[in-house]
Design a protein that fits this description.
The protein is an alpha/beta fold and 226 residues long. The chain is 33% helix and 28% strand. The two termini are 24 Å apart. Bound molecules: adenosine-5'-triphosphate (ATP) and magnesium ion.
């Protein structure tokens, strides 16, 4: 079952060469469990920074993040690592599969890291690759797959340990229009059928149709919600 995500007054500042950069300037956001949400906005508006903080990869300078009733910003680093490993899946712009491993091995490896019992891993990995339409390609290595197929392996890997939330940061940036459309349809299906909360960022206005809610960021602030 998906999780509800709440960010309260999130501020993230960076210091570079003595200068202070405000990447997020008081973000308030409430994402319903099982919904499919898109964050859009120009380059540098704060999308990746926000995703990293909501997903527990980074800590805010100020503010709080709650996942269901749990405040993840109050956890220690190991607590956050643990939360991430169990409850969150990530999909990134450049696919980041392990090139020496087949599609099957990539998903299996992610299950191993998540602590999945060995007996269940094989079936689960195959089931997830089937769910993304890659049953015929499970023994292909990344270099033997198209860009869209590689990104589908990344989605299979992200859903394999049954996370409550998937964060996808520009997952279609390196794909053409049709493949982008397919990946977004896949993420939407994952969100609805598996009841996983999905938070995705994109620049592409053609993909917004799929979202339950679209948040527009500008200069570290949410300026529009629809
Ligand atoms: N580690 C960092 N150190 C310093 N500044 C950073 C760091 N990460 C991000 N920033 C700055 O914070 C702002 C927001 O960056 P962020 O990566 O969140 O933007 P984005 O909306 O994801 O952009 P893009 O669409 O290009 O991916 C930018 O001005 C960026 O330069
Ligand atoms: Mg980004």
């Amino acid at each position: 079952m998906g999780a509800r995500i709440e960010g309260k007054n999130i501020v993230r500042e960076f210091k570079v060469a003595g200068e202070r950069i405000v990447a997020l300037n008081g973000i308030n956001i409430e994402i319903q469990e099982g919904s499919f949400v898109i964050l859009k906005g120009r380059s540098g508006s704060g999308k990746t920074t926000l995703i990293n903080i909501l997903g527990g990869l980074d800590e805010p300078t100020k503010g709080e993040v709650f996942i269901d009733e749990k405040e993840i910003t109050a956890l220690s680093e190991t607590g956050r690592d643990d939360f991430r490993r169990k409850s969150v899946g990530f999909v990134f712009q450049s696919v980041a599969l392990i090139s020496a491993m087949t599609a099957f091995e990539n998903v299996d490896f992610a299950l191993r890291i998540a602590g999945y019992p060995q007996k269940e891993r094989e079936n689960r990995a195959k089931e997830c690759l089937e769910a993304v339409g890659l049953s015929e390609r499970i023994y292909h290595k990344p270099s033997e797959l198209s860009g869209g197929e590689q990104q589908r392996v990344a989605v299979a890997r992200a859903i394999a340990h049954k996370p409550k939330i998937i964060f996808a940061d520009e997952p279609t940036a390196e794909l053409d229009a049709e493949k982008s459309f397919q990946i977004v349809e896949l993420l939407k299906r994952v969100s609805k059928e598996l009841k996983i909360t999905v938070v995705m960022t994109t620049h592409d206005p053609n993909l917004l149709f799929a979202a339950d809610n679209v948040y527009t960021l500008e200069d570290g602030e949410i300026i529009d919600v629809r």
